[in-house]
Amino acid sequence: MMIKRLDATFGKLEGESLELHDGLNVISAPNESGKSTWCAFVRAMLYGVDSSERQKAGFLPDKMRFAPWSGSAMQGSMQLESGGKDITITRTTKTASAPMREFSAVYTGTSVSVEGLNGNNAGEMLTGVSRDVFRRSAFVEQGKVAVTHSAELEKRISAIVSSGDENCSFTEADGRLRQWQRKRRFNRHGRLPELEDELSHKKQLLAELSDAAQQRENMSAELERAKQECERIEAEVIESRKVVRKEALSSLQGVRNEVNAATERHDKAVERRDSCRAALCACAIGERKPEEAKAEVKTDLENSMKLKERSERKSSPVLAIILMILCGALVAAGFLLPDLMIHAFVAAAVALAAGIALFIHASRRKTENYEAAKQRRKLLAKYKAESEDDIAASIDEYLELYKNYAEAQRAEKESAEALAVVRRRQEQAESKTLTQLDFTGGDNQAAQLSRRLTEARAKCSRISAQMAEHSGRLAAMGDPLVLGSEISRMEAEYAEISAEYDAIALAIDTMRKADEDIQSRFSPALGKLAAEYMQFVTDGKYDGVMLDRDFSATVHEAGGNVPRNAEYLSAGTLDLMYLAVRLAVCELALPESANCPLIIDDALVNFDADRRRQAMALLEKIAQERQVILFACN
Prior knowledge:
The chain has 634 residues and is an alpha/beta fold. The protein has helices spanning 35-47, 62-65, 122-127, 131-135, 151-161, 170-184, 191-282, 290-311, 318-336, 341-382, 388-437, 445-477, 480-537, 571-589, 609-623; strands at residues 2-10, 13-19, 24-28, 75-82, 85-92, 102-107, 139-140, 542-547, 553-557, 564-565, 598-601, 628-632.
């Protein structure tokens, strides 16, 4: 496979193109120019964008990280050569939640679709490996040169070393077998411990079943005897209660008759008191204390007499009229007797002033008399009287009515006290009767028999509860034949699962040995090729690379005695070691038929000048066999 052209609207790339050729392609560009974006675009075109990934702390999924900065839909095309034919694959976005989900593959320059190639299998069909193996071999991301372990890569290695079947992985198979083993036994968990506990429980139930059945028969006989005792005592209780009730009701009836008579007398006294009170309230003075009534009547009577005197005072205007006539005569005399005119006019003025003053006094006296008469009539109306004698008579009527009311009130109080005494006697009688009718806490024969009956019934209930408990236990224990059958079935299941457990343990051990054999054949070959690459780049300084199954590596320095772990290497040497392992994995694990391109993103950034030059020479050598696309800053 060889990539010829890329057209991308992806991340910061907006409709940009990249032309590639066979052999070594070096794309040198400064930081933030889109080199890593081109690498991610190649992976997305081959394997699509995983829309199920979710953002979390320290991780941004590709669908968000490489969303076009312009807001356009994520899309692109790739022109490539595979199997001697030019193919153009295109991925576009129809819905924002599924970026680059729409896929097409046609032969370049035509509209003829490539049969069997779709959006789900395009990467594996073209490169020959799955996305997981591709990312751990031919696709070297920036800052991720190290090879990490995965089940997919392990399957690929197993296929190369053994039969060629890529559907099996020791890690997956071992994990599945151990999962099956744990389902059968893991410490005190699993089906085998469950069967052991159930068998022990069932056998114990079978042993207890006969004892519980015998106890139930004994309790049934005891319950029958207790029921017969209850029936006998109950008959005695009924008879004794009849006698006690008859005596108690007879004693209580006499007291109730006295209460009824006292109630009747009290009702009559209340009726008479209310009648006297109504008559008292209807009188002119109304309901009040005698002292207050007498004082008020005395005051009102005195006021009425005074008002009467004031209303009867004389107020005649005759003198005022005489003075007015005299004034007129003096004025006339003044005109008739000119010599006495002045004296006559002065005398006339004096007579006029005196007449007016007397007239005003007479008018005022008349008004005062009218007001006094009005107040007197109002005061008489208060007592519904026509004269002061009637007011004096109203106090006598009031005193007589008040006397009757006081006597009726006293009689009502005495009858109420008498009624209260009789009712207390009734309460005492009723309390005594209740005590006599208390058939639980009393001391009479009926109460004693009732307590015996309660005890007998409690005994029956207790025995019944015990029988119910035993019946429940018997039901839970089940039938002896059924229990025996279940025990036999469980023993057979236990034997079968024990045999399965032993077989799984044997399979795990056998697979472990087979995996060790595979590793012993593949790891040396992989380490040898990686060592050759590393020896070439370092001019022979390092001549050995050893790999574990998880691809953790150690290196051996030429002339040295002890291999060095990765932790002791410089950043540049560490990147070189894992790049050598990557190149070896590509050479040994990737299928020759697909000839998958090698895509490297800034993997040489930590190399010094000499090693960078040697690494480039190595990549040129590898590029003679497969396309190499290297993105670098310099």
